[in-house]
């Protein structure tokens, strides 16, 4: 694989992760999980518990690095707890492996 092709694939992988963050974490589009992930039922269950309690949650990407089919992302999620009104901020380092344009092995 040429250096140009490899760089192009890395950029595509990083853009896929950016799109995933926007669609799933910021638009709260649970159906989009299936678009990006195989076997994402457990992830959807987690989000199904988080989003209703934190309806204003917003996630930003602070750092994103790609190599081959792997992307490392540092996220910051900010939200207000619906019941308590308390504001939270979570910094989440995440490793993502992409296979055949699906996100795999999302480790938080």
Question: Could you walk me through the main structural features you see in this protein, from its secondary elements to its overall organization?
Answer:
The protein has 108 residues and is an alpha+beta fold. It has a single domain (3-107), classed as Nuclear Transport Factor 2, Chain: A (Roll), CATH 3.10.450.50. It is built from 3 helices and 4 strands; from the N terminus they run αααββββ. The chain has a 4-stranded antiparallel sheet, with helices on one face. A hairpin with a 6-residue loop joins β2 and β3. The mean pLDDT is 89.
Order of helices and strands: HHHEEEE
Residue share in helices?
25-40%
Strand order of the largest sheet: 1-2-3-4
Q: Main beta sheet, described?
A: 4 strands, antiparallel
Structural class call reads alpha+beta
Shape type: elongated
Give the domain tally.
Answer: 1
Remind me, CATH topology? Nuclear Transport Factor 2, Chain: A
Question: Which regions contain 5 or more consecutive residues with pLDDT less than 50?
Answer: none
* CATH class identity: Alpha Beta
Discrete helix count: 3
């Amino acid at each position: 694989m040429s250096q140009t092709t490899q760089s192009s694939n890395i950029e595509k992988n990083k853009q896929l992760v950016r799109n995933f963050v926007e669609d799933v974490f910021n638009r709260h589009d649970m159906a989009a999980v299936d678009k990006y992930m195989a076997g994402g039922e457990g992830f959807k269950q987690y989000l199904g518990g988080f989003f209703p309690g934190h309806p204003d949650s917003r996630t930003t990407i602070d750092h994103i690095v790609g190599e081959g089919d792997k992307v490392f992302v540092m996220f910051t999620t900010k939200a207000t707890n619906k019941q308590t009104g308390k504001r939270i901020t979570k910094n989440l380092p995440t490793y993502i492996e992409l296979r055949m344009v699906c996100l795999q092995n999302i480790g938080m």
